[in-house]
């Protein structure tokens, strides 16, 4: 059919419903390999399309958008959209949508799993079982930290930050938070970042990655944390100065770190960060549950279809693009 929109989907989607729904109204080109499309291939495949469903691995910038003159909507299968140059999309009248909310609980679960694992030294214990260093029970071996009664500092009191705070409260923690402003009914007490760092036994990060937050967790921040504090990051690797984190762990300026996100991803096995003690890293699995990923795919398709139909998508990241007078917004 001549007037069906064309769409590029940059990876096979979980579940069958989202792709079926998309295919019912659009001609869909899916990138099937497991690894992301190389930049040239991404541009070539997206060039003739009206819409793109992208992953966080795809860099969507001005030069790419210029190679895709018919592209009207980019729907990102993530709540974070730091892989997309939003001003470049907006000034070209390209709508950008994301998938907030549906991944909140899964990501909060993972943040709390990391917190618990680091507190109770689970990966160290598991390694001991496998490498034969598990000796007879001893009253001072593999002692961790209590969760109940400890102070949990949330940096970035949004959807996921709140869900982690609720988990902390449920485990008997005292919750404090730092944000750009006070959040109504947040289950914790607002503090300056300095006060939060000085007080927290656990610091969990939930800010988006942008120009303001890039490298926010640097040597000065780690120096202000308590020497036993556990640093948990399920936000984005870019909010952390990674060499500074490695140094803080080596020098015992913080107690431990548990990360779902790094720079780069995947983290090479010879990256110096992995030499740091008391460090646990998992491979960006925050939202990786079957139900969550299917809901993300469904929401991403909703955004794409709304944008292609000339409607305002529910989760539109750049509303200013709607007012853009350019060709793409006719
Ligand atoms: P959200 O609801 O937008 O929450 C972000 C929070 O951070 C907001 O409260 C925001 O405050 C706050 N914030 C922004 N800049 C800040 C700053 N400079 N200092 C302190 N607080 C700041 O987003 P969300 O749904 O919770 O997701 C948070 C992030 O988690 C995403 O951007 C994404 O990168 C990451 N994420 C990772 C995974 C994973 O798989 N590991 C999964 C999902 C999400 P304002 O309201 O003032 O803007």
Please render the helix and strand layout as text.
Layout: E1 6-9, H1 17-25, E2 27-30, H2 39-46, E3 51-54, H3 62-66, E4 73-76, H4 86-91, E5 95-97, H5 104-119, H6 122-131, E6 151-155, H7 159-170, E7 174-178, E8 189-190, H8 193-199, E9 202-205, H9 219-224, E10 230-233, H10 242-250, E11 256-259, E12 279-281, H11 290-308
Parallel strand pairs: 1-2, 1-3, 3-4, 4-5, 6-7, 6-9, 7-8, 9-10, 10-11, 11-12
The site of NADP nicotinamide-adenine-dinucleotide phosphate has 31 residues, from helix 5 and helix 7.
Features:
single chain; 330 residues; alpha/beta; Rossmann fold; seven-stranded parallel β-sheet; five-stranded parallel β-sheet; 11 helices; 32% helix; binds NADP nicotinamide-adenine-dinucleotide phosphate
- Compute the average pLDDT: 97
N/C terminus separation: 21 Å
Rg from alpha-carbon coordinates = 22 Å
Please tell me what the overall shape is: elongated
Low-confidence stretches: none
Give me the CATH superfamily of the largest domain.
Answer: NAD(P)-binding Rossmann-like Domain
Sheet bearing the most strands, described?
7 strands, parallel
Q: Which class of secondary structure composition applies to the elements?
A: alpha/beta
Please report the number of helical segments. 11
Fold-level CATH name of the largest domain: Rossmann fold
Read across the widest sheet, the strand sequence of neighbours is 8-7-6-9-10-11-12
Helix content: 25-40%
Order of helices and strands: EHEHEHEHEHHEHEEHEHEHEEH
What is the domain total for the residues? 2
The CATH class of the largest domain: Alpha Beta
> Can you count the beta strands?
12
**Residues in β-strands, percent:** 5-15%
- Give the bound compounds: NADP nicotinamide-adenine-dinucleotide phosphate
CATH architecture of the largest domain: 3-Layer(aba) Sandwich
């Amino acid at each position: 059919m001549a007037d069906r929109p064309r769409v590029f989907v940059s990876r096979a989607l979980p579940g069958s419903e989202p792709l079926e729904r998309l295919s019912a109204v659009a001609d869909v080109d899916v990138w099937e390999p497991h690894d992301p499309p190389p930049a040239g291939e991404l541009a070539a495949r997206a060039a003739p399309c009206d819409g793109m469903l992208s992953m966080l691995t795809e860099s969507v910038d001005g030069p790419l958008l210029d190679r895709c003159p018919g592209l009207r909507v980019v729907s990102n299968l993530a709540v974070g959209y730091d892989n997309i140059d939003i001003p470049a999309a907006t000034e070209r009248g390209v709508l950008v949508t994301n998938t907030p909310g549906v991944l909140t609980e899964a990501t909060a679960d993972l943040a709390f799993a990391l917190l618990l694992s680091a507190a109770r030294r689970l990966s160290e214990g598991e390694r001991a079982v496998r490498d034969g260093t598990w000796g007879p029970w001893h009253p001072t071996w593999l002692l961790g930290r209590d969760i109940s009664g400890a102070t949990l500092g949330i940096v970035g009191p949004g959807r996921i930050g709140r869900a982690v705070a609720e988990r902390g409260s449920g485990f008997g923690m005292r919750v404090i938070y730092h944000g750009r402003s006070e959040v109504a009914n947040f289950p914790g007490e607002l503090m300056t970042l300095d006060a939060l760092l000085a007080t927290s036994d656990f610091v969990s990060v939930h800010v988006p990655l942008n120009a303001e937050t890039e490298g926010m967790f640097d040597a000065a921040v780690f120096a202000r944390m308590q020497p036993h504090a556990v640093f948990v990051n399920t936000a984005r690797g870019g909010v952390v100065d990674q060499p500074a984190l490695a140094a803080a762990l080596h020098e015992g300026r913080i107690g431990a770190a548990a990360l779902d996100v790094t720079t780069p991803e995947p983290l090479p096995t010879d990256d110096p960060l992995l030499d740091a003690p008391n460090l646990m890293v998992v491979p960006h699995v925050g939202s990786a549950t079957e139900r969550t990923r299917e809901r993300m795919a469904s929401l991403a398709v909703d955004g794409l279809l709304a944008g292609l139909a000339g409607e305002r998508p529910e989760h539109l990241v750049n509303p200013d693009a709607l007012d853009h007078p350019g060709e793409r917004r006719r």
